[in-house]
Amino acid sequence: MKRYLYPDYLMALLQYRHRNGFYPDLLKPRDLSEKVLWLKLHDRSRLHTLCADKILVRDYVAGRAGSEFLVPTLLVTYDPAEVTPDAIRQDRFVVKTNHDQGGVFICRDRETFDWDDTRAQIRKRAKTNKYYEFREPQYKDIRPGILVERFIEGEKGQDILEIKINCFHGEPRFMQAIVGRFTDRRHANYDLDWKRMPFQGRTADIEHDVPRPDALDRMLAAAARLSEPFLFCRIDFLIDASGRPWFGEITFHPAAGLVRYNPPEMERALGDMLDLSRIDESRRVQRAALDESRRLNLGHTWAHLQDVR
């Protein structure tokens, strides 16, 4: 019951202590995880909700970075009953719930895909409000829906490469390369010159260096445009077998602000990149960005981006 009854501030303290063995300093946060946790409690806007919604964020991406980064859609619906073989004709596709994390169902062969189980799992997820798990406010008011996208092929049939770009004050500062997305997940941290950085998160390190993506400069430019209204966020991309980047999602609180980087001095150095005193400035920019999204007829752009070939 504490998940529903405890105030957000108390839950943040308790969850951080449970994960790290000590309480965070939220009065004078200095480490990156402490500052991300502070943002989770104090930086809340309708733009966060829009960008956390996997359906509506497509409009934001199209308006700021360009629709060429968007994976073609096969179906957008708010009714799980519409996820059927008649509605989705492609042999391979990806079904996503728009309001939470982990609601991804990959079809590599429509003949063996369990349509009934997928609909049942979607209905179950639709009854869960992700906000109450880690008190990330951007999830609280998202209307549960379903996004079906074209399947993106990784190199040589492997899991697709992920590039996660961490942005501070609208500027990319460092990134993670993720391999083995659905199998043996591993990562490596890189700076903007694609030099490996000497720190580690909660995922095991990649044993080898990942080649610099050919489209890295395009991704960095797009990440800067998408992150511009926010003090901190992470812009995620997927790289297909041809090297083309596709937008994945915008993450505002990686690991809900509970996981620290090691060694501790890097956690502090990364925290120094984030200036919380600029919160009022960020809120003004967020309001302007939300007004811009309204002018773009939010929620309807996706209809023009469908690709049913």
Would you tell me the overall average pLDDT? 92
Uncertain runs are: 301-309
> Going across the major beta sheet, what is the strand order?
8-7-6-5-9-10
H-E order = HHHHHEEEHHEEEEEHEEHH
State the distance separating the first and last CA atoms: 48 Å
Share of helical residues: 25-40%
Structural category: alpha+beta
| Relative strand content | 15-25%
- Strand segment tally: 10
Main β-sheet: number of strands, strand sense, barrel status?
A: 6 strands, mixed
Radius of gyration: 19 Å
Shape: globular
Number of helices: 10
Descriptive key words:
about 300 residues, alpha+beta, 6-stranded mixed β-sheet, 4-stranded antiparallel β-sheet, 10 helices, 10 strands, about 20% strand
Would you give an account of this structure?
By secondary structure, this protein is of the alpha+beta class. It is built from 10 helices and 10 strands. The chain has helices at residues 2-5, 8-20, 32-42, 46-52, 57-64, 115-126, 131-134, 216-227, 264-271, 279-295, and strands spanning 73-77, 93-97, 104-107, 146-150, 161-168, 171-179, 186-190, 204-205, 232-239, 245-251. The strands form 2 sheets. Strands 8-7-6-5-9-10 form a 6-stranded mixed sheet. The chain has a 4-stranded antiparallel sheet with strand order 1-4-2-3, covered by helices on one side. Residues 301-309 have low confidence and may be disordered.
